[in-house]
Amino acid sequence: MQWNNIKGCVLDTISDLVGKVEKRARKPWITQEMIRKMDQRRKWKNINTEKVRKNYRRLRNKLKRATDNAKKEYLENICNEIMEYQRTGRYDLMYMKTKELGWKETLGIQNSGIEDSQGIE
What we know:
mainly alpha, about 0% strand, extended
């Protein structure tokens, strides 16, 4: 109990001096407003009444529409930028931009055969 009081005082003081630090999104198209909606939706997730379930679904659908539109817009902007690099003949920038997207980084699960005691497949 005392630790929580100390922790709360320290966090309040730091937020007053430095400012509130927002959560950083892992995906570039997710905004701080979407993160706030996610937190709001998360509050209602594990409560099982009909009214709360409808509210949760409404928030989930609203958030899904917003993220889908933002992702589509982000990808269209990136594609237009890459196509502009191609039109101007800047292939180095074009390849660099596609590499930033990182679609080739994940190779997935690589299956290997069953090995016997000597390590031979």
